[in-house]
Amino acid sequence: MSETSETLVLTERHAGYRVLVLNRPDRLNAFNEPLHLALRGALSDAAADPECRALILTGAGRGFCAGQDLSARNFAPDVEPDLSRTLEEFYNPLVRQIRELPMPLICAVNGVAAGAGASLAFHGDLVLAARSAKFLQAFAKLGLIPDAGGTWLLPRLAGRARARGMALLAEPITAEQAESWGMIWRVIDDADLLAEAHRLAAQLAQAPTYGLALIRRALDASETNDLDAQLQVESALQGEAGRSPDYREGVASFLEKRPARFTGRKR
């Protein structure tokens, strides 16, 4: 079957959430330009749907994403590669789009996540990994640096020493290591991975979605703010949250001792 936007990223619609499946299993779901465009299109479509209040991202076959498809890097001897163009046109816009999603993203890592594929996984709000999964920063083996936000993510997730070890040695780490280092939310038995991802997505789909998006913004801001600046961020974002109908519903449901019925909307 030829690759099209419909086949490169499969979309499953469920009540309140969607599942996006990277679908190049013969290439371990490695990125080429069509896959970039298909994923960005699927993310945009989900973000524009008010009924979609959570996302699951996973991979078809035995891998999550092997990063860049090097078979697309068959340069002629006299051609000097311009990898900065690839980042500016494809990877960087994808990362920014993920970070600005209006709903939580669950990454269900079902196998190897290598290079930019590992960075992609780590950008998830909740990262679940199958027990057999592995994370690999393979860039050093190619004379490159971690990209797709990798140099920003690794020290924040794993700490300075482990980030440098992963980047310089290009050795895989297991799902259990990633969990023990605080890089992912949870390790799940392989057979239960997608069921747990669906359970969390269904839970998030009933939550105050706009408030969850504000939580992400606040936590992201805290990465570079000092305490006083972060207090200002909290004040501004809490003001926005308090004006949402979900805040009123949360208070009312608490006082009336009943389950909340959140709409997820800003206004």
UniProtKB/TrEMBL annotation:
Q: Name one GO biological process term.
A: phenylacetate catabolic process
Q: Which SUPFAM superfamilies match?
A: ClpP/crotonase
Q: Which domain of life is it from?
A: Bacteria
UniProt xrefs under InterPro entries = ClpP/crotonase-like_dom_sf (IPR029045), Enoyl-CoA_hydra/iso (IPR001753), Enoyl-CoA_hydra_C (IPR014748), PaaB1 (IPR011968)
Gene Ontology molecular function, alphabetical = catalytic activity
Please name one Pfam family that this protein belongs to. Answer: ECH_1
Protein family per UniProt:
Belongs to the enoyl-CoA hydratase/isomerase family.
PANTHER family given for it?
EG:BACN32G11.4 PROTEIN, ENOYL-COA HYDRATASE
Q: What is this protein called?
A: Enoyl-CoA hydratase
| The species this protein was found in | Methylobacterium tarhaniae
